[in-house]
## 1
Amino acid sequence: MIEKHYDAVVFGGGSAGLAAAVRIAGQGCSVAVLERENELGGILNQCIHNGFGIQRFKEDLTGPEYAERFIEMVEELDNVSIFLETTALEVTHGTPHSVFAYSKRYGVIKIECRAIVLAMGCRERNRGNIGIPGTRPAGVFTAGLAQRLINIDGYIPGRRAVILGSGDIGLIMARRLTWVGVEVLGVIEIQGYPSGLTRNIVQCLNDFNIPLYLSHTLSEIRGKDRVTGVTVTPLQDGKTVTAKSFDLDCDTILLSVGLIPDNELSRKFGVSLNPETGGPFVDAGLMSSVPGVFACGNVLHVHDLVDYVSEESERCASFVVEYLNGTYNPLLHHPIVSGANVKYVIPNKYLPGMTNRFYLRSLIVKNKAELVISLEGEPLKRKNLAHVQPSEMVSFSLDEQDLSRGSESREKKLEVSIY
Amino acid sequence: MKNNIYDVAVVGAGVVGASIARKLSAYACDTVILEKEWDVSFGVTKTNSGIIHGGFHYPTSTLKGRLEVLGNIMFDRLQQELHFPFRRCGILAAAFTIEEMKTIEKMYMQGVENKVIGLELCNRDRIHSLEPKLNPDVVGGLHAPSGGVIEPYHFVFSLIESAKKNGVELRTRFKVVKAEKRKGHFLIQAENGESLRARYLVNAAGLYADEVSAIFNAEHLQIKPLKGQEFLLDRNAAGLPGKVIFPVPSIVSKGILVIPTPEGTCMVGPTAIEQKDKEDLSTSQSNFATVFHSARRLIPKISERDIITSFAGLRPTLKGNDFYIAISEKQPELIQVAGIQSPGLTAAPAIGEYVKDLLKKAGLVLTERPDYDPFVDEIPRIRKLSPYEADALVQKEPAYGEIICRCESVSEAEIVSAIRQGHTTMDGIKFYTRAQMGRCQGGFCSYKILKILQRETGMSIEEITKRGLGSNLITDRVGGLAVKDPAAAPTGTEEVK
């Protein structure tokens, strides 16, 4: 069995893994990137639409273009080893951590390293997770799978489609399907508001006259072998109004009903997971409960924009380098917790004496909301937010000055709320 | 296609038909097994709960009671020969009251009378030590260590593989629609126009045993489907027990069970709902609450959040609720094997023996084949190997190093084996390898499997189906569909706000 040693191993060669690898290697540490697919870039490769990089590069790029920027950076570094078509199946934490990586080319490689970056991204929620009643025919696809089939493989999964869920992938796919000649009969959204970005509602549905059924659900799938239709039922006060149900004759159903951080490997490391995000609990340096195991990108929590994934992953990488240099001290970190109307805040700890960046999700939909960060009930910082809703991530920073205000207190637990 | 006359045609390649065919393959007997679906085990067997029952539910005055006990003890040897996933994890029946304990005692006595080995009555401490996840309110129960779990479809795949290896011919997509009694044989015609001749017929057609019986002018049977819906939970589910957990049964069914599958996931169900339609496999949300309420009563940690998928199957029930396995009184060369509902899977190996004896009684001469080989090759499964064993294997066969299904750790080589064994639908591959069966339900692997299927079979992408005729997955290629409103197509200069 081939054995290899690196300072750090990055699991996943998508947007998070690439950004982390570039930053770690840029600081002179050796890095291995393990990627399951036959090319780097991850899900970006199938996102051939534009809208990427506006924050990060101040340019409007497609997914593959955005990925290419990082791929070029990583390929210029000679202390990064890329393992394509390689899957890590067995891992153990310790000093060093060990990873068994499987590939056709090398067999099983045993890799030892001091730091791990979890960057496996997320997976799609599927029919089973949401329990749509009815038959179980061919023709039910998750939106991301359909996107892959069309954009990379060139296969069209059907001719008349209904999309469940107004998440961004669902909206993008409504437009994509229309462009390849599939009739999109409608997008069904269980909530009273769309869960994708507003720009996608406009550009992907409104521009093509595709109806968006808010507060509706799919109450039945029909068809023995292939989908022949669905029943759509409106919801009122959370209850189905069966009398107002209507049928749509379609042969295809796309599900865009949410993403789940893909943490199977994290579990094998023994990382403790946060039920709110589906990802690991992390301290201010994005290190998990297992020393030396870090997490960033969609495996940590699902992001709206890849630009944020890159930012978070680079930030994570800087701490990985500190860890490798022996200057990382998790004992200095203090907790930050979700208060009123907040689903989660990431990271779960902050570090006084530096600028800390946080991402959070709101539980409520509200215009002119206020973000309040408090210490022992005393507001430390306030920020006005024009609009909040669960599907749009909120970010904020606390700098050294903000954090010094409460430094007299012994209890250093921060709480973040939205009012 | 053969021109000769088969000695035996078995109609139905479910667990019953496959067990019979495999039994006959030990004899110098020209056997053909006929299946209307595109793959074997795609009917009743596919959705079976996969329990090898403990022999305490039915008296041996019933045929199913006798065959269950006989069948149970045959599985160890079968597994050694055929390598299907099977584990004697044991069964617990949990009682919540003194009254329920009385029923438990009756079940115990029944089991003892049936000569089941190892049965024990448990007090509160004993049952909780056997299964620490049980509801603390459980006061006691029954432990049947001989009970277990199996992958039913995999069992059938192995039986068929073994039968084929010993000369049995399998004909899929062969839906029997017409039969005539000729001189000394039946002429059997399929919907697709094919036909063949056989001297003896075994009707193991599951839900359609009544229709097959009618086609052969034999007994008037009426099979009534009894729907059972199951929920499959993630292998990480906190409620996953070590043993199969039963409640105290009702008159209609054995109740809602919590089942640890042999591959490490968890199943909750089945429901028992009578219906008329033999094709209706739809799932419903209405019984969802009841199922989880019942399951949580047994194991409080069972959670809806762990659901991977839900599916429904139909049990083929017959009036009287016992198995009907007999030489037809109207067609002395036809053996009826009908009404095989629970515990049919457990009984299947014994049904194979029993039907072989009935065929003899009906006049078929059976002599043992000297070259009979009961063993099939065990296909390596990457998830079962240590990294060092896996490395050695990949060095010999690189395709074992390419992990196609990340949720269940299935390699490309295993997918290729499935295809070479004749499993050329997406569901066939799923049941053979477990790829697409895990938590992502094919989201990350199905596009890879589509590619391998095309490469290995030469099928075009449009020909690939989920489970046979009409269940095609891909309709067109990009560029192959007319775009209705070309004005709506992208100009390439779109502004993003």
## 2
Amino acid sequence: MLIDGFTVVAQIVNFLILIWLLNRFLFKPIRGAMERREQKMADALHRAEQAEQQAQASSLALEREKTAFAEARENLMADAREEVDQWREAAMERTREEVASLRQAWMTSISRERQAFLDRLKRQVARQVVRIGEKTLRDLSDQGLNRQVLRVFMEKVSDQKDALNHPAANQEIVVQSGIPLDDEDDRMLRERLSTWFPTAAPIRLEAHPQLGLGIQLVVGDRTAAWNLLDYLQDLEAEIMESLFDHVRVNS
Amino acid sequence: MQLTPDDHIWWQLGLLKVNSTILFTWAVMVLLSAGSWLVGRRLQTGARMSRVQHVLEVVVHVIDRQLDEISPRRPKGLLPFLGTLFLFIAVCNLLAVVPGFEPPTGSLSTTAGLAICVFLAVPIYGIGAIGVKRYVGNYLQPTPFMLPFNIIGEFSRTLALSVRLFGNVMSSTMIGAILLIIAPLIVPILMQLLGLLTGMVQAYIFAVLSAVYISAGMDVATTT
């Protein structure tokens, strides 16, 4: 007999037991391991995708930050350039003003110096003219001119004799002369003074070359004099006044 | 000459007996269970794993994929059933090359038992998937007159399933034994190698046909 009933039943039971055993020790663990591996791979892929997305997001963020930084730098550079331009303009303006001020001061100084130089020059010219005139008159003076000077002096003293008479009382009269007086001039001078100032003490004549072409009378604290130098000084003063009046009108 | 290992009885007490078929079935069960337990203790879920685990994962994955192709809407418990069926038959046939080993699949009792399991699994999975009424109605298709023929078809295909496997394995064993007498050199080795190939093919055919029968029990019902 090829088939045995007990063996058939036993093999069915054995097969069912084997199904349970293999399901318990083979299929479940293997499938579980495979599913866990697939889950791990899926998780790893998911994490990789997330990491890639994060990397892309970070890349985009970095790109945006880079662009923002570039814009900020551009703005800062533009502001800095504008500030530098403004500062340069202001500095140039200040420098121009300083230069103009310095130039103005320099021009004023130059003008003042030039004016001063011109003033000195005019003054020296005037003085030199006066001195030349004085020297010319002194060089050309002679007895006639001296006598004429003495005459003019006498007239001046005569005009002031009333004013001088009172201080001359009991006072010494001193006549200082810058011109040489001869005996006749001396005698005439003494006579006139004695006549005009009878109460005066003796008359003393002194040579006084510093007076130049001039002569003066000193009674106490009073003086009467004629001197070419006074005229020349008046002339110089008038010349100076006219010169500087001309300068003031021009400036 | 023994045509079946059932005749080789190792121990008997009344109706209870242990013959070569049962004994070597236990051996295969121990081998499969122990091997699975040893590998399952240190399963790796990372990219690195042992070669044995890799082989087992490939086997399970291939079986799973084949079942997906045959029955896309298969129930969850079908893989342990058909996977165990394939592995048991394949290991029994592979071990036929071991001297002294008598493959249990060379016993008509074993193949009949497996065929009966498939015969019972078809209505169990079919009813579980589509219900009793629709499953029973499947036998009335295309007309109620086909009911006897459909029932006969169920029995005949179960019989064919068991006899096909038994015939192939038994004949392969017998041919090997006969060739060993006629031409003891080289030829039996070649025939043993051929027997390995036919053994794997028979395991595949048995498992695939079982999957087709179970899948057909669900698919036909869902289309009516």
